[in-house]
Amino acid sequence: MTLSRKNKTLYIDKEAASALELVSEGLLSPVTKLMNEAESKEVLRTGLINRKSFPFPFILAPSGKKNEDILASLEKGEEVIILCDGEEFATLVVDETFTIDPKERVKHIYGTDDLTHPGVMTTIKRLGKWAVSGEYKLLNKVPNENIKKIRHAKELVNAKHTTSLVMAANPLHRAHERLIRQTLDTTDLLVIFLLKPYDNTNLSYEIRKEALEFFINNFLPKNRVVIIPLENSYIFAGYNEIIIDAIVAKNYGCDRLTIGRNHAGLGMFYDCNSNKSIVDKVTGINIEITVASEYVYCDQCTTLVSKNTCPHGQHHQISYHADSILELLEAGLLPPAVLVRKEISAFILSKLIPNRFKNLEKLYYDTFPVKGLLEEHSEKDFYLELMKLYQTTSLT
After folding, report:
1. Which of 10, 73, 186, 273 ranks highest by number of CB atoms within 10 Å?
2. Topology of domain 8-138, per CATH?
C-alpha cells in the first residue's frame, strides 16, 4: 500500500516498530494505544493502567531533527505516515503532541539516567523531545503465527497449566538446562521466549535457537516445549523487565512465569521492614510468578546443585556466567562439559569460527582413533571427538 507523500512522515527504527506491533496484537494489554500527556502522567503516578501494572508510559517519541520538526508542527486530526527502514509501516491520526524529558524517560525505564549505563546511552540516543499520541494502523500487517502455535500446542497436550521462561541462552549452558527441566516438571506445557535483541553483542538468534532446539529434541518431551522469539526492545530493559515479561507471557496465554534468581530485574529493595522484589509490585496481571533457585556446580557434591541445598560454600562452587562462557567460545576454546553440553559447544564453535583448520581431514585422522575408512567429517565432528579426549582420565 502506497500513501500520498503529501502526508507528513515520521521515521522510526525496528525497536519502536516492534513495540507498536506488540500493542497492535494485544500482547502488551492493558496498553491498547499510544498514551497522551495526561495518561502518561497518571501511569507515572500510579504504575497502573485500568488497575493493572504497567511501569511507564507507552509513548512514541522518535529522535532526529526531521522527526522533531514534524512533531512540533502536527495538529489534532492530521494523518501522518510512519516509515521504518524506508518502508511504510503505519499511519497515525494525531490526537495530541507534547514534550517529554528523555532523561526522565530513561530513568523510569532503567531506574537511572547515568549515561555510562550501556542501555541508558543506547536508548537516550533513540528518544526525541516530542511525543505523539493517536490511533495508528499497521500497514501490511501479518497475523502473529506464534499465538496460534502456542494455542495448538496447548490443545495437543490438553494443557491445564502453561508456564513461560524468558531467556537469552547466550549460550545455552547446564544451569539453563536444569532450570528448563525443573520448570517442565511442574507444568503441562513450557513456552520459552527466546530473546532476539537488536545489537550484535550476542550469538545470533539463529545459532541460539538451533542449540536450544537440539536440547529439546534430544533430551526433553518435545511436544511439551515451544520456542517463541521475543524481540528484545528497550521496553524490556531495566528493573521493570519482569513486569513486562509477565504481561507479554500472560497475553500469549501463559498462566505461570518462572524467572531465575539472578534475573537482572530481580533487585531486592527494602520496604516496610521487609525484603521485597519487583515481583511484589505486579498488580492485576493474573499470572503466577515463581523465582527459581540459582544453580552451581559443586566440586564436593560433584554435580549441579541448588545454592539453597549445597552446604559447601562458594569456594567449592562454580557459577554459570553466560558472558564468561561465551568469551571462551569466542576465543575458540571448548568450555568444559560441566559448563556446556559438548554437542552444543561443538555446534556453536563450528558456527563462530567456520573453516578454522587448514586441513581438517588430516587433523582428524592424525588425532583420533578411526575405523580405517575414508569419511568426511565436519568441524562439529572434530570438536566432539576432541571433547572425548579431554574427558579421558586414565593418564591424569
Report:
1. 10
2. Sulfate adenylyltransferase (3.10.400)
